[in-house]
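Forum > Structural Biology > Help requests

Title: Can anyone predict the 3D structure of Component of the SF3b subcomplex of the U2 snRNP?

Hi all, first post here. I have the sequence for Component of the SF3b subcomplex of the U2 snRNP but no way to get a structure on my laptop. I'd be grateful if someone could post the structure tokens.
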Amino acid sequence: MPKVQASRRGKEEPPEGWSDLEPTLQEFKQKMRDAENESAAGKRRVESTWSVMRVHHQRSRYIYDLFYKRKAISRKLYDYCVKNGHADANLIAKWRKQGFEKLCCLQCIQARDTNYGTACICRVPKAKLEEGRVVECVHCGCRGCASTD
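Reply #1:
Sure, ran it for you. Structure tokens for Component of the SF3b subcomplex of the U2 snRNP below:
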């Protein structure tokens, strides 16, 4: 009986242009490690994950800008980045829709996570809030991601 070859599905070769992105993505990876290992002493319970959320947003925004805004990377490279977890496809899909261009995280638009079944306070335009009121999102620490700000 012939020997069965093991498939090499998990290790596909990166597409052309990966060498240009890799140093920046390595920096984001290091920032993420630092954010995960950061001490939570002296912080509120919800504040301990904010730095991780910020790095996640920055990394996804970097890939989004390269592909959709500057058109500097190919579709194949973009798909490779999404597939390997370097960018959040769901967050990028929301950024492409009108009214969600500045969205900080997906938790801010999930109505089930709020007390009144509405969006997060950071999604309210600053013009509609009281003068001088500082808004801070509980989920990610955002101070306002409404598209009209």
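Residues 17-38+45-96 form one domain. DSSP finds four helices and no strands in the chain.
Shout if anything looks off.
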